[in-house]
Design a protein that fits this description.
By secondary structure, this protein is mostly helical. It contains three helices and two strands, in the order αββαα. It has a two-stranded antiparallel ribbon with strand order 1-2. Strand 1 and strand 2 form a beta hairpin. The chain starts with a helix and ends with a helix.
Length: 69
Amino acid sequence: MEYTKDMILQVRYGEINRTLKNKKEKRTSKFLEGIQKHKLMTTAVISAIIFISIDMILVSNFVRILSIV
């Protein structure tokens, strides 16, 4: 019964202090681990977002200049 409950709740016992440890990781640690694992993809996405935002600013300024004249 205890073994089944431990499997369902995903509880692991620490071997050093004989204490309970939770196996679940935080979402942020998984997110940061994914960023570190896929550095090239992360760099490409961040640079694409930056270039798109710069392009939107330049186009809006161009339209503003055309509307003044």
